[in-house]
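quick one: 2-phosphoglycolic acid bound model?
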Amino acid sequence: MEVIIKADYDAICDEAAGIVLEEWKKKPGLVLGCATGSTPLGVYGRLIEFYRKGEMDFSHVRTFNLDEYIGLEESHPQSYAFYMDTNLFSQVNIKRENIHRLKGKPRDIDGHCREYEEAIRRAGGIDVQLLGIGRNGHVGFNEPTSSLRSRTRVKTLTEATVQDNARCFLEGEMVPRFVLTMGIGTLMEARLIVLMSSGVKKQDAIRATVEGPVTASVPGSVLQLHPSVKLIVDEESSALLAQKEYYRYVYEHKGRVGEYLA
Ligand code: PGA
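yep, here:
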């Protein structure tokens, strides 16, 4: 796991968007796994800027949404389908047929989840998976005690997550408790995982994810077993990391090994 510590939210978004751009340059048909929530918003904003400036083209990019609320139509303003349309897809030249999303009201839930996994396989797997993290260490909507090998399926949100999500809903509006989410096993097959975290509220989750034991009680911690994770955190989110100065040193001296081989 590469821990990249940046000053603030803007800086983590610059870093994450820059990584997506570099990966797209290597593969214009990039398969991008898209997280929602407040954290990746700035990344999508930057991808739109790249597109407008002619630095990035989405005509061959394929995407897979990470999760969805059960019970919400795609047109519901809080659905993740709507979020991705509003915050990225409607503003770049991605082809509709290249956008994959979990449905909030599938007729056959298990069949839909199986088909989603199959679609990821057919696309050749996810190249870059963007992730946020919950205060309880969830990744996607894989709440604590999720199977570390889980695939796309129904999950029940914890009360804490329901409360965190409530800020996005109108006063008195019902906040969904059931969701569909890619599983931890699904996420672990992505070639590169870019996890972002900002703010003091995520300090404990980040400490447990990076430096705690691998445990289903903190789903993010399983990323320690993934060969290619970039965890991009701001000063606030990284404040409790015991090895913070070491991570900083590693990042600042990246690529300097060659000097010692000369
Ligand atoms: P947030 O959510 O980006 O809105 O903080 C992250 C998450 O719950 O995974």
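The two ends are 27 Å apart (CA to CA).
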